[in-house]
């Protein structure tokens, strides 16, 4: 297969451009260069023939470039014609002759306006996110009351299924991680408290920290990453494949069928996981205090009893269902916002986890202020 | 380039519906199994250059499996597949050379959902050829015009297209590098009769203008009737019959009689 060539031969007051060789996609870069040079042809000769009789092979790329050359020369004030087409290739050239000039891409502004544009859109997006969240909270509460009035609508099987996914299956990893965090907190506490002989206060620190804050916060973050993302991906791919539309047309409410069971499962699961997590962290901390700090289990327990009251425990556990609701609402809003593409699914799953964790921490701050104000 | 000069077949100008004897795809003793279930069992098939081969068979008979085996998506147990005279079990380089000379239209289009139509069509071109943005855009427009779509479609995303448009864009993408063979997996399924008829016409036109060889898996009797030069029938993991539509109608094989003389077939063929 020989490469393409384009020769110029003067003929009287005309000019012949003789194309030869393979005018195919394989040689597209070389062809483009040849045609680009020929397009710049100017001169006194009004008649130009593009002779393609020597072309051994022609495909869409070659045919288009010949057609483009003809158009450029015609626009330059020449009388350009294509000659020597075989019957097979004539149809191909006719086909590309119908092609209109490419639509130019919409002009994108400068880099600075693009940045400002992005910032503006993001800020506007925050408002939209809040509206979508409030909307979803309203829809879930409304669905809850509908189910309350007609308990037969409650999807127990679905709730149990999701409870298995988000609670039972999460137990090992949640317990392992909180156990390790408990160990680390106790070790760090001992290491620093020992310097001024306050070893035993490590138990106070561990008890208050784990029961009030760490247990529930850590577990909520883990659940947002583990189950929030799963909810978004599930709902998002159902949305992509029009399954949610199908449900609607059958007279089902997507909130009742898909979202309420998930929310209920999550609201039940998070307190259970937070409790297990807190216990695992205390156990881990106690173990380190005993083995590393020499605080034996019985004095650990009696110290713990003095240091913490039931209030600490309640403060921790009260937060759990609220955080579960926040995670669930964010995950469902993001899931239903997925558009048709795989990229969109990825973006919304990411933002489900990011926003879920962000709102969990914000809620934790709000609770801290609230409990400080009422004095517990 | 060197591999193609070795096969003089590729130099012949590919013309209108030439059913010349040289086989562009040649499958010999192909066996494909999933676990212990043999889907294809010693299958032989030749596809001639420039023809449109319609490939039929009962649902689940392995039509798509054969197509996917030829294009290398399903591993085979034994047998040889030669495309353009190159054994596909040869080196990776030979295989890649062959791969850029065929285009595939998947059953559901398989457009990249995060790219728009323009980017979908340009994707293979960008990957294989170093050409300017201008030529890329022009070629995209040429392909869109060829498959009968308006230029405005170029900036839409696959999720914003109708079923028929997805098939057309997918065909434009399959044709992006001007392949010599296109594989079509049920190209007219899910299209309305007018759209399906247009699509058959389009395949015919493209085959004439570009000298394509078309391997079409289909259930559409209209397509078989109007678009295909030759029909091959798959059954029990083998080709049970091949020939023109007239041969199929004359065949006494019970499944073929039912397929081509059933109620639906009579409505089409009359």
Task: Kindly describe this structure.
The complex is a heterodimer of chains A (376) and B (270). By secondary structure, chain A is α/β, with parallel strands linked by helices. Chain A is 71% helix and 9% strand. Chain A has a four-stranded mixed beta sheet, covered by helices on one side. Chain A starts with a strand and ends with a helix. Chain B is of the alpha/beta class and 270 residues long. Chain B has two domains: 169 residues, P-loop containing nucleotide triphosphate hydrolases (Rossmann fold); 64 residues. Chain B has eleven helices and ten strands. The longest helix of chain B has 18 residues. The N terminus of chain B is likely disordered. Chains A and B meet through helix 1, helix 2, helix 3 and helix 12 of A and helix 5 and helix 7 of B.
Record keyword descriptors for this entry.
heterodimer, A: alpha/beta, 9% strand, elongated, B: 270 residues, alpha/beta, 11 helices, 38% helix, disordered N terminus, ABC_transporter-like_CS (chain B), ATP-binding (chain B), nucleotide-binding (chain B), transport (chain B), ATP binding (chain B)
Mean pLDDT of chain A: 88
Computed CA radius of gyration of chain B, to the nearest angstrom: 19 Å
CATH class of the largest domain in chain B: Alpha Beta
Order of helices and strands of chain B: HEEEHEEHEHHHEHEHEEHHH
Summarize the structure.
The complex is a heterodimer of chains A (376) and B (270). Chain A is an alpha/beta fold and 376 residues long.
Task: Describe how the helices and strands are arranged.
The complex is a heterodimer of chains A (about 375) and B (about 270).
Chain A: E1 5-11, E2 14-23, H1 28-39, E3 47-58, H2 60-75, E4 79-83, H3 87-97, H4 111-149, H5 156-166, H6 171-193, H7 201-240, H8 243-249, H9 254-291, H10 297-307, H11 310-336, H12 342-374
Helix pairs in contact in A: 1-2, 2-3, 4-9, 4-11, 5-9, 6-7, 6-9, 7-9, 7-10, 7-11, 7-12, 9-11, 11-12
Chain B: H1 2-5, E1 23-34, E2 37-48, E3 52-57, H2 63-70, E4 78-83, E5 86-87, H3 92-99, E6 102-105, H4 117-128, H5 133-146, H6 163-174, E7 181-185, H7 193-210, E8 213-217, H8 221-226, E9 230-235, E10 238-243, H9 245-250, H10 254-261, H11 263-269
Parallel strand pairs in B: 3-8, 3-9, 6-7, 7-8
Antiparallel strand pairs in B: 1-2, 1-4, 4-5, 9-10
Helix pairs in contact in B: 4-5, 4-6, 5-6
